[in-house]
Amino acid sequence: MSVEDERDELTGHRTTGHDWNGIKELNTRVPRAVWWAIGITHVWALIMWILLPTWPLVDTYTKGILGINQRDLVQGELEAGERYREHWEAHLTVASLDEIRSEQALMDVVRATAPTLWGDNCSACHGISGIGGPGYPNLIDDSWLWGGSDESVLHAIYAGINSAHPETRVSQMLAFGEMGILSRDQIRTVGEYARALGGLAEPEPAILEEGATLYAENCASCHGEDGTGINDLGAPNLTDDIWIYGGDPDSVFRTIHDGRQGWMPAWEGRLSEAQAKILAIYLLDILPEAE
């Protein structure tokens, strides 16, 4: 490796004098634009050191001439957001659902806030779109266990179903097989009758007749003589095609044999009154529109 002072024949620039198997490095100057960039960034950094909080000390930091404190800025934004929230929450708390629906400003708040509330509190069971799943009701259809009025939906949110809330709604289907009320054959027969009510089966006339008798003796008190359910008891409508636990023969057999007891937590104390109303309107008006 040589260190001779020489110039490259093609460019006329000096080389460093280093030679790696015929490869030589040009000893060119750093472009002036690079020096300008370095100088400007250093001057800018120096100015920022002077103006803004920069250097950590033992138990504090340099505040800078401007005295900017990001914690204060963030806290101010949080307080402004809280004041805005308190403003519309006060209106929502005293307004009825119909009054909220009629005021565009409040509905804008509902539409902006509800998806987050729903996602945080409801979607784990009922799904992000409200269609539910096995064991969890579909909330965007027209089949309501406890009724779909504003008051009924709000009460379900506040007090839950079979929860520890003193005003909770209580509903339980007996385990007709486990309790020895019906035999396995009787369960299959009345199950086929129930499926026939919902248009899911076409049993033989003899099974229909026996099933109707068993239904009248054991099921009609909750589900109604015509099978349309009783909202005051939370008993589902058996004449539609909406089956929370499944409408196939095996699922219906398990439901009758083992019984069912749904559960929903009481949200009073965890959700404010305004938040409950937001969710009720979202559930009754907005989710069905999205679907």
Q: What's the topology here?
A:
Elements (H helix, E strand, L loop, with lengths): L14 E6 L2 E4 L5 H20 L18 H25 L2 H6 L1 H18 L1 H4 L23 H10 L24 H14 L7 H14 L1 H4 L25 H10 L14 H18 L1
Antiparallel strand pairs: 1-2
Helix pairs in contact: 2-11, 4-11, 6-11, 7-8, 7-10
Question: Would you write up a description of this structure?
Answer:
- The chain is mainly alpha-helical.
- The chain has a domain at 123-290: Orthogonal Bundle (Cytochrome Bc1 Complex, Chain D, domain 2).
- Helices cover 49% and strands 3% of the residues.
- The chain has 11 helices and 2 strands.
- It has helices spanning 32-51, 70-94, 97-102, 104-121, 123-126, 150-159, 184-197, 205-218, 220-223, 249-258, 273-290; strands spanning 15-20, 23-26.
- Strands 1-2 form a two-stranded antiparallel sheet.
- α2 packs across α11 and α7 (184-197) crosses α10.
- The protein starts with 14 loop residues before the first strand and ends with a helix.
- The model has no long low-confidence stretch (mean pLDDT 91).
